[in-house]
């Protein structure tokens, strides 16, 4: 059994009026502009990686609707636990473009102080939690925040994003189970892009869908067209309202497609038919939403073009600014391991600083070689 | 003052801290209505209710994962892992997540979680109710590892751990949960983390140990005294951060070192103590360092008493360093 796929904007330009959300024009326009910015951010980042200026990137092109639709359905007080393919969650919530590029460069302006690989952003000011590379670990953590909020009687919702590969990990099941048991106000958002690096969905699960898995944990699962930003918005908003009412979690499966490689080190031609990519290009989420807005007369073609121009300019400026910042200071290596530096770390730092008087460390690292 | 067991002292610390700070919550398997399989959380559910004392599903990575989330949100969760042997499903959440949250977020997301877990042998528990795997965690930057050996320290160190801004793995030597009793103040107090304790003063030789092994060392020290050897027993109390100065000061005084731990010998935390002494106090040594440890075998059932270091083996090690 596969659940019906919720769709508001058809690929054929039809609009499902019954599910069309009543959003303010400003919000709709901001959604499109953010999706465009995410795409521009991504393309710039891949170029920076290809030209050897940054070490690594994880692109999200094709999945902008999942990110922006979900983010737009939350309030600023809500918490978000993203996966590594969701810069749109940061950008919608107000993270500066420069902050994301600073992370890609691992420079002294990086909020994570250059301690993680590119795409592992963090932004406390906007309640977006630091990202981990191991998959699905953020699910039980998101449930923990939601449980804590309920204990504190704060009416917040926690959204956590992950991919289809994550649904095979034990933490997916553990997180879903805890959320069901405690009726935690969580929205599980699975961007099912059908490929976990090279492994297709049917090798992750024998289930007909991701959404169906929610049934076993005692809460609803819904399936939406992940390239339809209004469908994602609608589903996540319903799930968030449900959670806020105290009715517990929802699993939202956004069925989508990653248009690019898994990462800058991956070549999808090795495992994915090109024809499929061509097919999904026709379902580009930005194009589809742009057409909807222009057709409705909310935005002119010229305004859409200038949004692209503005996105390219903003990302170019931000990347250039990030490139100018120096690496973090050597001392920062030893900071934040603990709240206060314990004696053994102080000793190691002192020894390092002493050694450095005889000469700087030589950087023999290769660019991320995978 | 009351005479308390180690277990009762743990319970007293939990009650004290939960009364003091309403951000403190306890979660784990059977910790609620049942009061924990060892009764460490007895009475908490009745006093603090189901919002602050949570019986969880049986999934360790869920217990630690949700505790991390609670800590990120501002609570002070104290999850219990029923036996340290069961902690491995949560290893990723502890080592890759909990320990690294503050660092990887540039200090934005500290996660002050205190994981309590009974550990160690001596209760006929076989492989899965006896392990001493503290070294895995002491090897993880970002975690503190604290192990009391007396009721007084159990209460004072657990209180400190709960007030600490960093994640702490608080290991409770279950072999001495009920066998070691001592006076414990009813009033609030803390014992600082990272400060070793001289459990017995001596000038002939030092034994460095922690947890249940402190009592084995004390027994050996008493026997050594009959031969005129004055053994100093240093209870490390905290493996991370380690009170290096206390270790070095004792070696400088006695010139002889026995390192005692019940975990497997190779790569055990005692190896770190041996290295510390060799690196920074070699010139004070009158004899090679001797380790007394568990064997590099899985923890046995029937032959547990052969595996576990006892006073006899410790005494033999003391003889070796004294007669080098």
Task: Provide a descriptive summary of the structure in words.
The complex is a heterodimer of chains A (370) and B (324). Chain A is an alpha/beta fold and 370 residues long. Chain A has 2 domains: 5-324, Rossmann fold; 329-370, no CATH class. Chain A has helices spanning 25-50, 64-72, 87-93, 97-105, 138-151, 170-182, 213-216, 229-244, 274-281, 285-295, 301-324, 343-356, and strands at 5-6, 79-81, 158-163, 186-192, 195-196, 199-200, 221-225, 250-255. In chain A, helix 8 links the parallel strand 7 (221-225) and strand 8 (250-255). In chain A, helix 1 packs across helix 11 (301-324). The longest helix of chain A is centred in the N-terminal third of the chain and has 26 residues, at 25-50. In chain B, the strands form 4 sheets. Chain B has a 5-stranded mixed sheet, with helices on both faces. Chain B has a 4-stranded mixed sheet with strand order 5-7-6-12. Chain B is globular. Chain B has 2 domains: 2-184, Thiamin diphosphate (ThDP)-binding fold, Pyr/PP domains (Rossmann fold); 197-322, Rossmann fold, CATH 3.40.50.920. Chain B has 12 helices and 14 strands. The longest helix of chain B is centred in the first third of the chain and has 15 residues, at 6-20. Chain B is an alpha/beta fold and 324 residues long. Chains A and B meet through helix 5 and helix 6 of A and helix 3, helix 4 and helix 5 of B.
């Amino acid at each position: 059994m596969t659940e019906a796929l919720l769709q508001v904007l058809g690929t054929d330009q039809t609009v499902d009026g019954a599910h069309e959300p009543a959003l303010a024009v400003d919000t709709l326009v901001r959604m499109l502009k953010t999706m465009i910015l995410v795409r521009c951010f991504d393309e710039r980042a891949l170029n920076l990686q290809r030209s050897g200026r940054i070490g690594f990137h994880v692109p999200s092109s094709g999945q902008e609707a999942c990110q922006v639709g979900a983010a737009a359905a939350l309030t600023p007080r809500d918490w978000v636990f993203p996966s590594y393919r969701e810069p749109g969650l940061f950008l919608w919530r107000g993270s500066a473009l420069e902050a994301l590029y600073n992370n890609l460069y691992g420079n002294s302006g990086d909020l994570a102080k250059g301690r993680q690989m590119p795409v592992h952003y963090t932004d406390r000011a906007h309640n977006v939690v630091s990202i981990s590379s191991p998959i699905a670990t953020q699910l039980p953590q998101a449930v923990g925040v939601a449980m804590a909020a309920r204990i504190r009687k704060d009416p917040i919702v926690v959204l956590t994003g992950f991919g289809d590969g994550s649904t095979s990990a034990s933490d997916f099941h553990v997180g879903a189970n805890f959320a069901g048991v405690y009726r935690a106000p969580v929205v599980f958002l699975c961007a099912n892009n059908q490929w976990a690096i090279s492994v297709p969905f049917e090798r992750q699960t024998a289930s007909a869908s991701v959404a169906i898995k929610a049934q076993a944990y005692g809460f609803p699962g819904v399936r939406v067209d992940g390239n339809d930003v209004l469908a994602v918005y609608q589903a996540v908003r319903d799930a968030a309202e449900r959670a806020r009412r105290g009715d517990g979690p929802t699993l939202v499966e956004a069925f989508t497609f990653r248009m690019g490689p898994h990462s800058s080190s991956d070549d999808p031609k090795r495992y994915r038919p090109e024809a499929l990519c061509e097919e999904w290009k026709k379902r580009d989420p930005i194009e589809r939403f742009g057409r909807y807005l222009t057709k409705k007369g909310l935005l002119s073609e010229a305004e859409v073009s200038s949004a692209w121009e503005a996105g390219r300019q903003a990302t170019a400026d931000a990347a250039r600014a990030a490139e100018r910042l120096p690496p973090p200071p050597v001392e920062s290596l030893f900071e934040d391991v603990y709240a206060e530096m314990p004696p053994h770390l102080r000793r190691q730092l002192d020894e390092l600083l002493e050694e450095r008087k005889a000469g700087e460390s030589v950087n023999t690292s290769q660019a991320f070689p995978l | 003052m009351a005479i308390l067991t180690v277990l009762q002292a743990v319970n007293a610390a939990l009650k004290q801290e939960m009364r003091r700070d309403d951000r403190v919550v306890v979660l784990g398997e059977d910790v609620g209505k049942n009061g924990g399989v060892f009764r460490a959380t007895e009475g908490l559910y009745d006093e603090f209710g189901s919002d602050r004392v949570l019986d969880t599903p049986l999934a360790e990575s869920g217990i630690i994962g949700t505790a991390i989330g609670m800590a990120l949100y501002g609570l002070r969760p104290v999850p219990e892992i029923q036996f340290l042997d069961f902690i491995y499903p949560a290893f990723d959440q502890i080592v890759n997540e909990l320990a690294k949250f503050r660092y990887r977020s540039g200090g934005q997301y500290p996660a002050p979680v205190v994981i309590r877990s009974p550990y160690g042998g001596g209760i006929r528990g076989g492989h899965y109710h006896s392990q001493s795997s503290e070294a895995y965690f002491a090897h993880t930057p970002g975690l503190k590892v604290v192990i009391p050996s007396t009721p007084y320290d159990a209460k004072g160190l657990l209180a400190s751990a709960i007030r600490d801004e960093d994640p702490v793995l608080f290991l409770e030597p279950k072999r001495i949960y009920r066998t070691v009793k001592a006076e414990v103040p009813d009033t609030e107090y803390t014992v600082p983390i990272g400060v070793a304790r001289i459990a017995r003063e001596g000038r002939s030789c030092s034994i460095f140990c922690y947890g249940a092994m402190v009592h084995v060392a004390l027994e050996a020290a008493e026997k050594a005294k009959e031969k005129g050897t004055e053994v100093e027993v240093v209870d490390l109390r905290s493996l991370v951060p380690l009170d290096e100065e206390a270790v070095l000061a004792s070696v400088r005084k006695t010139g002889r070192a026995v390192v005692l731990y019940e975990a497997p010998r190779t790569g055990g935390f005692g190896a770190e103590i041996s290295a510390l002494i060799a690196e920074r106090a070699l010139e004070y040594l009158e004899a090679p360092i001797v380790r007394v440890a568990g064997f590099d075998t899985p923890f046995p059932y029937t032959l547990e008493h052969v595996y576990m270091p006892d006073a006899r083996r410790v005494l033999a090690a003391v003889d070796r360093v004294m007669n080098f």
